[in-house]
């Protein structure tokens, strides 16, 4: 089941970061949060995660691309952030083999760049945050809630 | 004189090297060089820790064979302990511990970033700190003041993408393939580096941190707004991108030299293999009377020879890792595994 829950037009990287902070506020009552970030290279996925970090009291400058490391972990008194990137992965089997699957049980915010590659495999409900180019600096950001439909409904 | 076996599995490649001390590399085998894939007869995923487990015995055998050295002749094992991917590091470290235990050999866990700073010493025995270190690879972009071996001060690092990552992503976007460094370098030779101007990121005000995300986006954006895309345009985009990266790396290196008062630069990591960068740095060095060291190409990318050398250095200082030490995916420069 998909439910569109938010829509935002960002006019700059700064506004994208602000939106990341708003997301943290909006999710304050959730213990486990899984966010899949979807969009082309250069559209602002890492930028949004910098905003999420900032919302948790972590310096945005600390947040660097996890493309090579695959997972970067950050923590503050306000919570934990697991920043992942599946850009280099082609198979869900690689996610399992690398031990990344275990992270989906952890408490905190998990933000996965290129996470939509394996959209059928996640063991729990998640949000998809989609980015679209509008102009040189403008981006359209859509947030959608995804939950598996109940078997007997 | 001793024989050191080095093991490196921090990222995607499995590497093993035999070093005859002080610095004679008898062999340096990397899984990508050899046609190991065919021996499996199946598809091996690009990113997988299990892959290291399958490659390790083959790569080690090949390294010993090339060196003409028997396992029983070894005096020390050095293995990358971090930073890197946890699963991948574990494979190398577990393997090294097992061999150390079986053959009663001393073991030293090595910091991967530090080993890149040692790579130039493989071919320059007299190279000693103090110097400015520049580590540039797919996962790292760091300017480091090296007062002495083991004593490091980070002067600048990336705030978003690593420089090698920018090469890979731009290359993929331009349809040039993988790995991005060599293909962009090749295509750039027939491109006009002055056709487009791309800002290098944090280029002003003597800022020593790096930012390559905006540069990547600028190239993508420019490519999207161009109406006519032919091979020449792609070459011009690649050359202009590479020019921006080199300008930024050289500029910040010079600022860091002024700040520290050092006159020697030691470059390491996969991006150090870029010929245009090597030429630009050497040209600056000549006009300013600086010494610049680049490892030869096999020692730029991840390799076990630099791990063996770094491990041996610590061993001669009396450092040894216990068989209980754990790999650490977030090991910082200057930290040793415990």
Q: Sheet with the most strands of chain A? A: 7 strands, mixed
Structural class of chain A: alpha/beta
Radius of gyration of chain A: 15 Å
Outline type of chain A: globular
Structural notes for this entry:
The complex is a heterodimer of chains A (153) and B (338). Chain A is an alpha/beta fold. Chain A has helices at residues 13-26, 45-55, 92-97, and strands at residues 2-10, 32-38, 71-76, 79-85, 108-113, 126-133, 139-146. In chain A, strands 1-7-6-2-5-4-3 form a 7-stranded mixed beta sheet, with helices on one face. In chain A, β4, α3 (92-97) and β5 form a beta-alpha-beta unit. In chain A, α1 packs across α2 (45-55). With 338 residues, chain B is an alpha/beta fold. Chain B folds into 2 domains: 3-119 and 299-315, Nucleotidyltransferase, domain 5 (2-Layer Sandwich); 128-294, 2-Layer Sandwich (Nucleotidyltransferase, domain 5), CATH 3.30.420. In chain B, 41% of the residues lie in helices and 18% in strands. Chain B has 10 helices and 10 strands. Chain B has helices at residues 36-40, 49-67, 86-102, 112-118, 163-173, 180-188, 213-225, 231-260, 275-288, 304-316, and strands at 3-8, 15-20, 24-30, 76-82, 107-111, 131-136, 141-148, 151-157, 264-268, 291-293. The longest helix of chain B is centred in the C-terminal third of the chain and has 30 residues, at 231-260. The mean pLDDT of chain B is 94. The A-B interface holds A 40-42, 46-47, 61, 63-65, 67-70, 73, 88-91, 93-94, 97-99, 133, 136 and B 11, 45-50, 83-87, 138-139, 157-162, 164-165, 168-169, 172-173, 209, 213, 216-217, 220-221, 224, 329-330.
């Amino acid at each position: 089941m998909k439910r569109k829950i938010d829509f935002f037009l960002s006019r700059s990287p700064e506004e994208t970061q602000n939106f990341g902070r708003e997301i943290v506020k909006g999710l304050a009552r959730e213990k486990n949060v899984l966010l899949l970030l979807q969009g082309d290279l250069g559209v602002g996925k890492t930028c949004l995660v910098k905003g999420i970090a900032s919302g948790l009291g972590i310096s945005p400058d600390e947040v660097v691309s996890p493309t090579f490391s695959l997972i970067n972990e950050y923590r503050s008194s306000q919570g934990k952030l697991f920043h992942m990137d599946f850009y280099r992965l082609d198979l869900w089997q690689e996610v399992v083999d690398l031990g990344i699957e275990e992270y989906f049980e952890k408490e905190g915010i998990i933000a996965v760049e290129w996470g939509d590659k394996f959209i059928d495999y996640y063991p729990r409900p998640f949000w998809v945050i989609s980015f679209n180019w509008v102009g040189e600096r403008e981006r359209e950001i859509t947030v959608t809630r995804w939950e598996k439909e109940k078997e007997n409904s | 004189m001793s024989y050191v076996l080095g093991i490196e599995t921090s990222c995607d490649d499995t590497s093993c090297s035999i070093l005859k001390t002080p610095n004679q590399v008898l062999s340096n085998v990397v899984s990508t060089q050899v046609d190991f894939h065919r021996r499996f007869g199946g598809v091996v995923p690009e990113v997988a820790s299990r892959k290291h487990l399958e490659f390790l015995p083959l790569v080690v055998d090949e390294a010993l064979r090339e060196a003409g050295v028997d396992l029983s002749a070894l005096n020390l094992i050095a293995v990358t302990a971090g930073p890197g991917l946890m699963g991948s590091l574990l494979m190398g470290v577990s393997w090294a511990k097992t061999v150390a235990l079986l053959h009663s050999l001393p073991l030293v866990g090595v910091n991967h970033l530090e080993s890149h700073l040692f790579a130039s010493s493989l071919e320059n025995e007299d190279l000693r700190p103090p110097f400015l270190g520049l580590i540039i690879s797919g996962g790292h972009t760091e300017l480091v003041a090296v007062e002495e071996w083991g004593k490091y001060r980070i002067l600048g690092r990336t705030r978003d993408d690593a420089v090698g990552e920018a090469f890979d992503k731009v290359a993929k976007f331009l349809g040039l393939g993988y790995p991005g460094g060599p293909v962009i370098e090749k295509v750039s030779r027939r491109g006009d580096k002055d056709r487009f101007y791309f800002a290098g990121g944090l280029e002003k005000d003597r800022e020593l941190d790096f930012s390559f995300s905006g540069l990547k986006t600028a190239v993508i954006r420019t490519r999207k707004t161009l109406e006519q895309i032919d091979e020449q345009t792609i070459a011009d985009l690649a050359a202009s991108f590479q020019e921006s990266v080199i300008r930024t790396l050289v500029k910040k290196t010079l600022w860091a030299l002024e700040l520290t008062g050092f006159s020697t630069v030691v470059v390491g990591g996969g991006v150090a293999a870029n010929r245009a960068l090597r030429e630009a740095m050497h040209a600056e060095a000549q006009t300013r009377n600086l010494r610049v060291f680049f490892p030869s190409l096999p020692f730029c990318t991840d390799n076990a020879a630099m791990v063996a050398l770094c491990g041996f250095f610590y061993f001669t200082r009396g450092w040894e890792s216990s068989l209980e030490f754990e790999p650490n995916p977030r090991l910082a420069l200057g930290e040793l595994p415990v």
